[in-house]
Design goal:
Layout (H helix, E strand, L loop, with lengths): L1 E7 L5 E2 L4 E3 L6 E3 L11 E3 L4 H11 L4 E6 L6 H13 L3 E6 L5 H14 L3 E6 L1 H13 L8 H5 L13 E5 L12 E5 L2 E5 L7 E4 L9 H19 L6 H22 L8 H18 L6 H4 L11 H19 L1 H17 L4 E6 L8 H21 L13 H14 L12 H12 L3
Parallel strand pairs: 5-12, 6-7, 6-8, 8-9, 9-12
Antiparallel strand pairs: 1-2, 1-13, 3-4, 10-11
Protein backbone atom coordinates (compact mmCIF):
# COMPACT_ATOMS: atom_id res chain seq x y z
CA UNK A 1 0.00 0.00 0.00
CA UNK A 2 1.25 3.49 -0.89
CA UNK A 3 0.06 6.46 1.16
CA UNK A 4 0.41 9.97 -0.23
CA UNK A 5 -0.50 13.01 1.92
CA UNK A 6 -3.02 15.57 0.77
CA UNK A 7 -3.63 18.76 2.73
CA UNK A 8 -4.83 22.32 2.43
CA UNK A 9 -2.32 25.14 2.61
CA UNK A 10 -2.93 28.47 4.33
CA UNK A 11 -4.69 29.75 1.19
CA UNK A 12 -7.22 26.90 1.34
CA UNK A 13 -5.81 25.09 -1.72
CA UNK A 14 -5.40 21.30 -1.78
CA UNK A 15 -1.78 20.33 -2.39
CA UNK A 16 0.73 17.48 -2.11
CA UNK A 17 3.69 18.21 0.20
CA UNK A 18 6.83 16.55 -1.10
CA UNK A 19 5.50 16.08 -4.61
CA UNK A 20 4.43 19.62 -5.48
CA UNK A 21 5.27 22.31 -2.94
CA UNK A 22 4.73 26.03 -3.47
CA UNK A 23 7.27 28.40 -1.98
CA UNK A 24 5.10 31.01 -0.21
CA UNK A 25 7.59 33.84 -0.82
CA UNK A 26 8.43 33.43 -4.50
CA UNK A 27 5.38 31.47 -5.62
CA UNK A 28 7.70 29.02 -7.35
CA UNK A 29 6.75 25.35 -7.32
CA UNK A 30 9.27 22.83 -6.00
CA UNK A 31 8.61 19.49 -7.70
CA UNK A 32 9.73 15.92 -7.18
CA UNK A 33 11.49 15.73 -10.54
CA UNK A 34 11.95 11.97 -10.37
CA UNK A 35 8.15 11.61 -10.39
CA UNK A 36 7.46 14.59 -12.68
CA UNK A 37 10.23 14.64 -15.31
CA UNK A 38 8.07 16.18 -18.05
CA UNK A 39 7.15 19.30 -16.07
CA UNK A 40 8.41 22.77 -16.96
CA UNK A 41 11.67 23.70 -15.25
CA UNK A 42 10.12 26.81 -13.71
CA UNK A 43 6.48 27.09 -12.62
CA UNK A 44 5.14 30.13 -10.75
CA UNK A 45 1.69 30.36 -9.14
CA UNK A 46 0.24 33.34 -7.35
CA UNK A 47 -2.44 35.99 -7.58
CA UNK A 48 -1.03 39.22 -8.95
CA UNK A 49 2.37 37.65 -9.63
CA UNK A 50 2.44 37.69 -13.44
CA UNK A 51 3.72 41.23 -14.08
CA UNK A 52 6.77 41.03 -11.81
CA UNK A 53 7.83 37.51 -12.77
CA UNK A 54 7.28 38.05 -16.48
CA UNK A 55 9.15 41.35 -16.47
CA UNK A 56 12.10 39.65 -14.73
CA UNK A 57 12.03 36.80 -17.23
CA UNK A 58 11.86 39.11 -20.25
CA UNK A 59 14.74 41.15 -18.87
CA UNK A 60 16.92 38.01 -18.87
CA UNK A 61 16.01 36.89 -22.41
CA UNK A 62 17.96 37.64 -25.53
CA UNK A 63 15.76 39.86 -27.72
CA UNK A 64 13.63 39.89 -29.77
CA UNK A 65 10.54 38.10 -28.42
CA UNK A 66 7.31 37.26 -30.25
CA UNK A 67 4.37 37.66 -27.84
CA UNK A 68 1.39 35.57 -28.97
CA UNK A 69 -1.92 36.79 -27.52
CA UNK A 70 -5.61 36.24 -28.18
CA UNK A 71 -7.15 39.03 -30.25
CA UNK A 72 -10.20 39.08 -27.98
CA UNK A 73 -8.78 38.11 -24.58
CA UNK A 74 -5.92 40.61 -24.88
CA UNK A 75 -8.46 43.43 -24.66
CA UNK A 76 -9.02 42.69 -20.96
CA UNK A 77 -7.51 45.22 -18.60
CA UNK A 78 -5.40 42.62 -16.83
CA UNK A 79 -3.68 41.49 -20.02
CA UNK A 80 -3.36 45.06 -21.29
CA UNK A 81 -1.57 45.97 -18.06
CA UNK A 82 0.66 42.90 -18.39
CA UNK A 83 1.62 43.78 -21.97
CA UNK A 84 2.38 47.36 -20.93
CA UNK A 85 4.69 46.06 -18.19
CA UNK A 86 6.73 43.91 -20.55
CA UNK A 87 6.91 46.71 -23.15
CA UNK A 88 8.46 48.88 -20.45
CA UNK A 89 10.96 46.08 -19.73
CA UNK A 90 12.00 45.56 -23.36
CA UNK A 91 11.53 47.57 -26.52
CA UNK A 92 11.93 44.43 -28.63
CA UNK A 93 8.58 42.76 -27.88
CA UNK A 94 6.49 42.10 -30.97
CA UNK A 95 2.78 41.31 -30.56
CA UNK A 96 1.10 38.63 -32.69
CA UNK A 97 -2.67 38.25 -32.27
CA UNK A 98 -4.59 34.98 -32.70
CA UNK A 99 -8.03 35.61 -34.16
CA UNK A 100 -10.44 32.95 -32.94
CA UNK A 101 -9.15 29.65 -34.33
CA UNK A 102 -6.20 27.34 -33.83
CA UNK A 103 -5.80 26.68 -37.54
CA UNK A 104 -3.00 26.39 -40.10
CA UNK A 105 -3.24 30.03 -41.15
CA UNK A 106 -2.68 31.26 -37.60
CA UNK A 107 0.42 29.07 -37.23
CA UNK A 108 1.89 29.93 -40.64
CA UNK A 109 1.45 33.66 -40.03
CA UNK A 110 3.06 33.27 -36.62
CA UNK A 111 6.03 31.39 -38.06
CA UNK A 112 6.42 34.17 -40.64
CA UNK A 113 6.40 36.72 -37.82
CA UNK A 114 9.12 34.76 -35.98
CA UNK A 115 11.41 34.87 -39.00
CA UNK A 116 10.60 38.47 -39.85
CA UNK A 117 11.83 39.72 -36.48
CA UNK A 118 14.36 36.89 -35.92
CA UNK A 119 12.71 36.02 -32.62
CA UNK A 120 14.72 33.94 -30.15
CA UNK A 121 11.82 33.26 -27.79
CA UNK A 122 8.04 32.96 -27.92
CA UNK A 123 5.82 34.30 -25.14
CA UNK A 124 2.23 33.00 -25.11
CA UNK A 125 -0.47 34.77 -23.07
CA UNK A 126 -3.97 33.37 -23.43
CA UNK A 127 -6.40 30.47 -23.16
CA UNK A 128 -6.27 27.04 -24.75
CA UNK A 129 -6.56 28.17 -28.36
CA UNK A 130 -3.86 30.82 -28.02
CA UNK A 131 -1.58 28.49 -26.08
CA UNK A 132 -1.94 25.79 -28.73
CA UNK A 133 -1.16 28.23 -31.55
CA UNK A 134 1.76 29.77 -29.67
CA UNK A 135 3.32 26.45 -28.73
CA UNK A 136 2.89 25.21 -32.33
CA UNK A 137 4.67 28.34 -33.60
CA UNK A 138 7.53 27.76 -31.14
CA UNK A 139 7.69 24.07 -32.01
CA UNK A 140 7.55 24.40 -35.80
CA UNK A 141 9.29 27.71 -36.57
CA UNK A 142 12.67 26.09 -37.33
CA UNK A 143 11.60 22.58 -38.37
CA UNK A 144 12.20 21.23 -41.85
CA UNK A 145 8.95 21.23 -43.82
CA UNK A 146 7.38 23.61 -41.31
CA UNK A 147 4.84 24.94 -43.83
CA UNK A 148 3.27 21.48 -44.20
CA UNK A 149 1.50 21.58 -40.85
CA UNK A 150 -0.83 18.70 -41.74
CA UNK A 151 2.19 16.41 -42.09
CA UNK A 152 3.06 17.02 -38.44
CA UNK A 153 -0.55 16.37 -37.43
CA UNK A 154 -0.76 13.13 -39.41
CA UNK A 155 2.57 11.80 -38.18
CA UNK A 156 4.33 12.05 -41.54
CA UNK A 157 6.77 14.50 -39.98
CA UNK A 158 7.97 14.68 -36.37
CA UNK A 159 8.94 17.73 -34.36
CA UNK A 160 12.64 17.71 -33.44
CA UNK A 161 12.68 19.17 -29.90
CA UNK A 162 16.25 20.41 -30.38
CA UNK A 163 15.04 22.77 -33.12
CA UNK A 164 12.10 24.20 -31.16
CA UNK A 165 12.22 27.76 -29.86
CA UNK A 166 12.04 28.20 -26.07
CA UNK A 167 8.67 29.56 -24.96
CA UNK A 168 6.98 30.96 -21.88
CA UNK A 169 3.34 30.15 -21.04
CA UNK A 170 0.98 32.52 -19.22
CA UNK A 171 -2.47 30.85 -19.10
CA UNK A 172 -5.51 33.11 -18.77
CA UNK A 173 -8.17 30.39 -18.35
CA UNK A 174 -8.52 27.48 -15.93
CA UNK A 175 -9.15 24.44 -18.05
CA UNK A 176 -7.02 23.10 -20.87
CA UNK A 177 -3.67 22.38 -19.25
CA UNK A 178 -2.15 23.32 -22.61
CA UNK A 179 0.62 25.23 -20.83
CA UNK A 180 2.02 21.91 -19.56
CA UNK A 181 1.49 19.37 -22.33
CA UNK A 182 3.69 18.48 -25.31
CA UNK A 183 0.94 18.64 -27.93
CA UNK A 184 -0.88 21.47 -29.70
CA UNK A 185 -4.47 20.73 -30.76
CA UNK A 186 -4.97 22.30 -34.19
CA UNK A 187 -7.89 22.30 -36.64
CA UNK A 188 -7.56 20.07 -39.70
CA UNK A 189 -10.71 20.56 -41.79
CA UNK A 190 -13.69 19.45 -39.67
CA UNK A 191 -11.34 17.65 -37.28
CA UNK A 192 -9.04 18.67 -34.45
CA UNK A 193 -5.70 16.87 -34.45
CA UNK A 194 -2.53 17.28 -32.40
CA UNK A 195 1.02 18.29 -33.27
CA UNK A 196 3.11 16.34 -30.76
CA UNK A 197 6.60 16.25 -29.28
CA UNK A 198 6.80 19.99 -28.54
CA UNK A 199 9.07 20.64 -25.52
CA UNK A 200 7.46 22.03 -22.35
CA UNK A 201 7.75 25.78 -21.79
CA UNK A 202 10.87 27.12 -20.13
CA UNK A 203 8.54 28.85 -17.69
CA UNK A 204 4.86 28.80 -16.67
CA UNK A 205 3.37 31.77 -14.85
CA UNK A 206 -0.12 30.98 -13.55
CA UNK A 207 -1.75 34.10 -12.14
CA UNK A 208 -5.43 33.60 -11.19
CA UNK A 209 -6.02 37.35 -11.47
CA UNK A 210 -5.74 37.00 -15.26
CA UNK A 211 -8.89 34.82 -15.18
CA UNK A 212 -10.99 37.33 -13.23
CA UNK A 213 -12.51 38.90 -16.34
CA UNK A 214 -13.68 35.59 -17.83
CA UNK A 215 -17.49 35.42 -18.23
CA UNK A 216 -19.32 32.75 -16.25
CA UNK A 217 -19.99 30.70 -19.40
CA UNK A 218 -16.29 30.56 -20.37
CA UNK A 219 -15.32 29.81 -16.79
CA UNK A 220 -17.74 26.88 -16.67
CA UNK A 221 -16.72 25.35 -20.00
CA UNK A 222 -13.03 25.62 -19.04
CA UNK A 223 -13.73 24.01 -15.67
CA UNK A 224 -15.61 21.09 -17.21
CA UNK A 225 -12.77 20.48 -19.68
CA UNK A 226 -10.29 20.47 -16.78
CA UNK A 227 -12.49 18.10 -14.79
CA UNK A 228 -12.69 15.73 -17.73
CA UNK A 229 -8.95 15.74 -18.29
CA UNK A 230 -8.03 15.17 -14.66
CA UNK A 231 -10.37 12.19 -14.29
CA UNK A 232 -9.22 10.69 -17.59
CA UNK A 233 -5.58 11.10 -16.47
CA UNK A 234 -6.29 9.39 -13.14
CA UNK A 235 -7.87 6.46 -15.01
CA UNK A 236 -5.03 6.08 -17.52
CA UNK A 237 -2.59 3.16 -17.38
CA UNK A 238 0.45 5.48 -17.51
CA UNK A 239 -0.63 7.28 -14.33
CA UNK A 240 1.62 6.10 -11.49
CA UNK A 241 0.34 6.29 -7.89
CA UNK A 242 2.01 9.71 -7.54
CA UNK A 243 0.42 10.99 -10.76
CA UNK A 244 -2.95 9.69 -9.58
CA UNK A 245 -2.48 11.51 -6.26
CA UNK A 246 -1.56 14.70 -8.11
CA UNK A 247 -4.68 14.26 -10.23
CA UNK A 248 -6.82 13.79 -7.12
CA UNK A 249 -5.40 17.00 -5.61
CA UNK A 250 -6.27 18.81 -8.83
CA UNK A 251 -9.74 17.26 -8.81
CA UNK A 252 -10.48 18.34 -5.21
CA UNK A 253 -9.73 21.97 -6.09
CA UNK A 254 -11.84 21.75 -9.25
CA UNK A 255 -14.68 20.08 -7.34
CA UNK A 256 -14.68 22.92 -4.79
CA UNK A 257 -14.84 25.39 -7.68
CA UNK A 258 -17.66 23.39 -9.26
CA UNK A 259 -19.83 23.63 -6.18
CA UNK A 260 -19.10 27.35 -5.88
CA UNK A 261 -20.03 28.02 -9.52
CA UNK A 262 -23.28 26.06 -9.49
CA UNK A 263 -24.93 28.84 -7.54
CA UNK A 264 -22.78 31.78 -8.65
CA UNK A 265 -23.67 34.73 -10.83
CA UNK A 266 -21.25 36.76 -12.96
CA UNK A 267 -20.54 39.08 -10.04
CA UNK A 268 -20.41 36.37 -7.36
CA UNK A 269 -17.31 34.50 -8.53
CA UNK A 270 -14.94 35.24 -5.68
CA UNK A 271 -11.19 35.60 -5.92
CA UNK A 272 -10.84 32.44 -3.86
CA UNK A 273 -12.94 30.48 -6.36
CA UNK A 274 -10.80 31.80 -9.22
CA UNK A 275 -7.67 30.81 -7.26
CA UNK A 276 -9.00 27.32 -6.56
CA UNK A 277 -9.87 26.76 -10.23
CA UNK A 278 -6.49 28.04 -11.45
CA UNK A 279 -4.56 25.91 -8.96
CA UNK A 280 -6.63 22.81 -9.77
CA UNK A 281 -6.13 23.37 -13.48
CA UNK A 282 -2.37 23.82 -13.03
CA UNK A 283 -2.05 20.55 -11.09
CA UNK A 284 -4.19 18.83 -13.72
CA UNK A 285 -1.89 20.05 -16.49
CA UNK A 286 1.24 18.80 -14.72
CA UNK A 287 -0.39 15.39 -14.22
CA UNK A 288 -1.64 15.35 -17.82
CA UNK A 289 1.92 15.81 -19.10
CA UNK A 290 2.77 12.42 -17.55
CA UNK A 291 -0.21 10.30 -18.63
CA UNK A 292 -2.99 10.33 -21.24
CA UNK A 293 -6.73 10.60 -21.77
CA UNK A 294 -9.64 8.24 -22.41
CA UNK A 295 -12.97 7.94 -24.18
CA UNK A 296 -14.44 11.39 -23.55
CA UNK A 297 -11.58 13.15 -25.31
CA UNK A 298 -11.31 10.33 -27.82
CA UNK A 299 -14.76 11.22 -29.16
CA UNK A 300 -14.47 14.99 -29.67
CA UNK A 301 -12.28 15.31 -32.76
CA UNK A 302 -15.36 16.35 -34.76
CA UNK A 303 -16.81 18.83 -32.25
CA UNK A 304 -16.58 21.61 -34.87
CA UNK A 305 -18.64 19.58 -37.33
CA UNK A 306 -21.17 18.95 -34.54
CA UNK A 307 -21.48 22.67 -33.86
CA UNK A 308 -20.10 22.38 -30.32
CA UNK A 309 -17.06 23.81 -28.61
CA UNK A 310 -14.40 21.34 -27.47
CA UNK A 311 -15.09 21.85 -23.76
CA UNK A 312 -18.86 21.67 -24.19
CA UNK A 313 -18.79 18.36 -26.07
CA UNK A 314 -16.24 16.89 -23.65
CA UNK A 315 -18.55 17.78 -20.77
CA UNK A 316 -21.50 16.01 -22.37
CA UNK A 317 -19.36 12.90 -22.97
CA UNK A 318 -17.46 12.87 -19.67
CA UNK A 319 -19.69 10.81 -17.37
CA UNK A 320 -20.88 8.46 -20.16
CA UNK A 321 -17.26 7.77 -21.15
CA UNK A 322 -16.24 6.99 -17.58
CA UNK A 323 -19.33 4.79 -17.03
CA UNK A 324 -18.36 2.62 -20.00
CA UNK A 325 -14.69 2.45 -19.01
CA UNK A 326 -15.51 1.55 -15.38
CA UNK A 327 -17.97 -1.14 -16.45
CA UNK A 328 -15.32 -2.77 -18.64
CA UNK A 329 -12.37 -2.50 -16.24
CA UNK A 330 -12.29 -3.04 -12.44
CA UNK A 331 -9.12 -0.96 -11.99
CA UNK A 332 -10.82 2.05 -13.60
CA UNK A 333 -13.74 1.65 -11.19
CA UNK A 334 -11.32 1.31 -8.27
CA UNK A 335 -9.44 4.50 -9.16
CA UNK A 336 -12.69 6.43 -9.49
CA UNK A 337 -13.71 5.01 -6.09
CA UNK A 338 -10.52 6.49 -4.60
CA UNK A 339 -11.47 9.86 -6.06
CA UNK A 340 -14.91 9.59 -4.43
CA UNK A 341 -13.35 8.66 -1.08
CA UNK A 342 -11.03 11.67 -1.32
CA UNK A 343 -13.98 13.93 -2.20
CA UNK A 344 -15.90 12.65 0.84
CA UNK A 345 -12.93 13.09 3.20
CA UNK A 346 -12.17 16.55 1.84
CA UNK A 347 -15.50 17.81 3.13
CA UNK A 348 -14.60 16.84 6.70
CA UNK A 349 -10.80 16.99 6.92
CA UNK A 350 -8.06 19.47 6.01
CA UNK A 351 -5.48 16.70 5.63
CA UNK A 352 -5.53 12.97 4.88
CA UNK A 353 -3.69 10.19 3.05
CA UNK A 354 -4.69 8.80 -0.31
CA UNK A 355 -4.02 5.04 -0.25
CA UNK A 356 -3.33 2.98 -3.36
CA UNK A 357 -3.74 -0.80 -3.34
CA UNK A 358 -2.13 -3.18 -5.81
CA UNK A 359 -5.44 -4.98 -6.25
CA UNK A 360 -8.95 -3.58 -6.44
CA UNK A 361 -10.96 -3.88 -3.24
CA UNK A 362 -14.53 -5.05 -3.82
CA UNK A 363 -16.12 -2.73 -1.20
CA UNK A 364 -14.77 0.24 -3.14
CA UNK A 365 -16.51 -0.63 -6.36
CA UNK A 366 -19.88 0.95 -5.56
CA UNK A 367 -18.15 4.22 -4.72
CA UNK A 368 -17.32 4.96 -8.34
CA UNK A 369 -21.04 5.03 -9.16
CA UNK A 370 -21.55 7.70 -6.50
CA UNK A 371 -18.81 9.81 -8.07
CA UNK A 372 -20.18 9.48 -11.59
CA UNK A 373 -23.69 10.34 -10.42
CA UNK A 374 -22.31 13.48 -8.72
CA UNK A 375 -20.37 14.30 -11.87
CA UNK A 376 -23.36 13.85 -14.18
CA UNK A 377 -25.53 16.03 -11.96
CA UNK A 378 -22.89 18.73 -11.45
CA UNK A 379 -21.99 19.11 -15.13
CA UNK A 380 -25.66 19.22 -16.06
CA UNK A 381 -26.34 21.95 -13.49
CA UNK A 382 -23.31 23.97 -14.59
CA UNK A 383 -24.36 23.85 -18.23
CA UNK A 384 -27.93 24.76 -17.30
CA UNK A 385 -26.63 27.83 -15.42
CA UNK A 386 -25.38 29.31 -18.71
CA UNK A 387 -27.96 27.91 -21.13
CA UNK A 388 -25.82 25.15 -22.64
CA UNK A 389 -27.14 21.79 -23.83
CA UNK A 390 -26.44 18.83 -21.55
CA UNK A 391 -27.07 16.04 -24.08
CA UNK A 392 -26.23 15.33 -27.70
CA UNK A 393 -29.95 15.10 -28.47
CA UNK A 394 -30.48 18.65 -27.20
CA UNK A 395 -27.50 19.77 -29.28
CA UNK A 396 -29.33 18.63 -32.42
CA UNK A 397 -27.44 15.44 -33.26
CA UNK A 398 -29.29 12.40 -34.63
CA UNK A 399 -28.76 8.67 -34.10
CA UNK A 400 -27.23 8.58 -37.58
CA UNK A 401 -24.75 11.25 -36.46
CA UNK A 402 -23.77 9.06 -33.51
CA UNK A 403 -23.07 6.10 -35.78
CA UNK A 404 -20.94 8.29 -38.04
CA UNK A 405 -18.91 9.69 -35.10
CA UNK A 406 -18.38 6.19 -33.66
CA UNK A 407 -17.16 4.90 -37.02
CA UNK A 408 -14.81 7.83 -37.63
CA UNK A 409 -13.37 7.86 -34.12
CA UNK A 410 -12.81 4.11 -34.22
CA UNK A 411 -10.70 4.59 -37.34
CA UNK A 412 -8.74 7.34 -35.56
CA UNK A 413 -8.05 4.95 -32.66
CA UNK A 414 -10.21 6.23 -29.77
CA UNK A 415 -9.02 4.20 -26.81
CA UNK A 416 -9.59 3.14 -23.23
CA UNK A 417 -7.25 4.37 -20.54
CA UNK A 418 -6.90 1.02 -18.71
CA UNK A 419 -5.78 -1.12 -20.40
CA UNK A 420 -4.63 1.10 -23.24
CA UNK A 421 -6.53 -0.45 -26.14
CA UNK A 422 -8.62 0.67 -29.06
CA UNK A 423 -12.31 0.83 -28.21
CA UNK A 424 -14.70 -1.09 -30.42
CA UNK A 425 -17.26 0.77 -32.51
CA UNK A 426 -20.01 -0.66 -30.29
CA UNK A 427 -18.29 0.65 -27.14
CA UNK A 428 -17.95 4.10 -28.66
CA UNK A 429 -21.58 4.01 -29.72
CA UNK A 430 -22.50 3.05 -26.16
CA UNK A 431 -20.80 6.21 -24.85
CA UNK A 432 -22.47 8.38 -27.48
CA UNK A 433 -25.89 6.85 -26.85
CA UNK A 434 -25.59 7.53 -23.12
CA UNK A 435 -24.60 11.12 -23.94
CA UNK A 436 -27.57 11.36 -26.31
CA UNK A 437 -30.12 10.64 -23.58
CA UNK A 438 -31.67 13.66 -21.91
CA UNK A 439 -30.41 14.08 -18.34
Amino acid sequence: MTQIPLKKDKFGLWNLPGLVTRDPTSGRLVLDRSALPQASECIIFGRGSAAEHLANAIDRLSSPVLAVVGASSSKSQGIQDLLETIRETSSDIHIYKVHGCADHRAIKDGIEAVHKIAANHVLVIGGGTTLDVGKAIAGLAHQEGRQDIAAFQRGKRTVDPAKALPWIAVPTTSGTGSESTNNAVIELGDEKKSIRNIPPPAMIIADPALTDSLPLSHTIVSLVDAMSQVLEVITHEKASPKIQALGIAGFLNLAEGTEALIGATETEITEHTRDVLSWGSLLMGIAFAHAGLGLAHGLVHFCIKCGLSHGHMVGILLAPGLWVQARQNPETASRLARVQQALTESKHEDAFDVSFFQESADPQQAQHKKLLTWLEDSVGRLFKRVGLYSSLREAGLSLTDLEWIASQEHELGASFGIPRRRATTDELLDVLTRAFSDR
